[in-house]
Amino acid sequence: MIMTELPWLVAAFVTGLLSAGHCLPMCGGIAMALGQQTRGDPAWLRAMKLSAHGTGRIMTYAVLGWTLGALVMLLPLQKLQPLAVAVRVLSGLMLIAMGLYIGRWWLGLTKLERLGAKLWQPVKTWFARALQNKGLAPSLLAGMLWGLLPCGLVYSALTVAAARMDAADAALYMLAFGLGTLPAMLLPALLSSSFQFSNALRRVSALALIGFGLWIAWHNGAGLWSADDPHQHHHHHSLSAN
């Protein structure tokens, strides 16, 4: 199973890395503030606190992935093969939307962020309170709440995770995705200053995500139009998320 999942985990990690063009302007300010808050601490304590922030955020991603994956498992997708394939095609389309968002060619994901912003309002207060407290436990809590920040890229990653149609797989996907976002968040925190992502690198990463999304959508779309043909059994193997 590990070998089977490895390509998807690598893809999730790389997706997180490629999201740096959005993560830096979106969350770089928060990461920088967290880094400044720990500047007076000994090096070992500062490292522990920053690790707690990142760990908490990734934990939230994993929990969200597990929850969404568990909900998808309740659907009779195995009996409705075309619907199952459609869910996987949607995950590819969401990756394309992610790439377009990072490249700033289409900002449709901001609509999802506006919806998430309504849920963020009460969490924002708890987040601010967690930041005021010192210690590893508040740092971990702040990181966990940070993971709930409205983000179209996280929503896209969750869609891909849900397409795994397995709670554990979805949690692992989001865990790998979160690990991929760590470098972009650690730089502002460690430097305690803003860090710019060049337009060229941002566009390259955006095109890579679009290409990945196109591959997923096309690969699974092949199964959509062959799913109703009883003479074609190979469509089961064409589902890249299996």
From TrEMBL:
Keyword annotations from UniProtKB, A to Z: Membrane, Transmembrane, Transmembrane helix
Boundaries of every Urease accessory protein UreH-like transmembrane domain copy: 11-215
Keyword Transmembrane helix among record annotations: yes
Official protein name in the record: Urease accessory protein UreH-like transmembrane domain-containing protein
Ranges that cross the membrane: 59-77, 89-107, 136-158, 170-188, 200-218
Domain of life of the organism encoding this protein: Bacteria
Listed Pfam families: DsbD_2 (PF13386)
Family matches, as InterPro entries: UreH-like_TM_dom
Source organism per UniProt: Permianibacter aggregans
